[in-house]
Design goal:
alpha+beta; 5-stranded mixed beta sheet; 10 helices
Amino acid sequence: MAVRLPRPPRFDVWVALAGLTGGLLLWGIGLGMRPDTQPMVVFDGRWPILVPLVVTACCELLRRAAPRIALLTGTAALVGDLLTQGNIATVLMYTDLMYAAVLYGTPASARRIPWITGLLTVVGTLVPYAMWREPEALLIGVGVGVVSFAPASTGLIVRNHREAADAALLRAEQTALLAEMDRTQAVTAERARMARELHDMVANHLSAIAIHSTAALSLDSPGTSREALTVIRENSVQGLSEMRRLIGILRDGADDLEPAATPTLDSLATLVEGARANGLDVTLDAAYDGVPAPVGLAAYRMVQESLTNALKHGAPGRVTVWLRRPEDALVLRVTSPYDGRDTPRAPGSGAGLVGMRERAALLDGTFQAGPESGPEGKLWVVRATLPVTDTVQGDT
């Protein structure tokens, strides 16, 4: 099967035409490199000069497409040129073939050709001098170095610079890709954080509003409706305040809406009082000391979401919030009566449990939630263990 060489680039075509044209002009005016009286001129006359010239010009067409073939064929043409009166254009085109073989050839060729040409330069310098003992003999080595070693070394230098530039470009692209991945992950993490904050801040108040508004609409009692509307108003105001706090966080640096302080475990009593106002029978049993801010916020949000779920899904009965801090962890447990019904008293999306699980995972903690049977009947139990260390980091 015949091997079809690729079409040469336009630049290589111009190089071949320029070399051939220049060689023909020198041949036309009769300007050769050696007189026909020299011993090494085997083919005297002007016409034999054209054969190496044309072959070398054709090799220039392959300087990038097939650099190894072009160099080997050009070397044979250069030897043939040495047996004639010679043409400087043939020699110049051969130096370009040597340069292109190192620059565009395989990595193995790029390593070997400079070594081979350097060795030939040394041999071409020492052997003639040792044979003839004439200073002029050193010029043979100089000629070999100029024709072979110099262009090969130049090609190696240019190739190394190009490879270094390509490696730098690849590193820059990889760095940009990593930066884009980091940005995407940061945006995703921030969106998840804001989703948790929005859900935890607003769901409790909206659930209370939905439940009490249903009671106000279903009961024909002015006193009950007034109490329900009072609870609705309180939860609306508190929900609006929480929304303003979230907007203040999103508008970081705004003068008119500065974010309020982040909730801590010290606010649990207030949270429990609000749940009682919404109709829950809640008891708080908490003992903790020196909890880092991320852990405190996560525990606060878990209690808040647990109370919201008890309001929406729980059966009548007592809800218990229990917190303790052993040596290196904050342990949280919230229990509420559970009757297993599928329809909640207020609509929900199920994102609360997901958010609590995410908060625990961000702090390398554990989280469990589900129904359990106990002495007091069937309960819904939320358990979380959050590690407490001086190096707790992360955004909950």
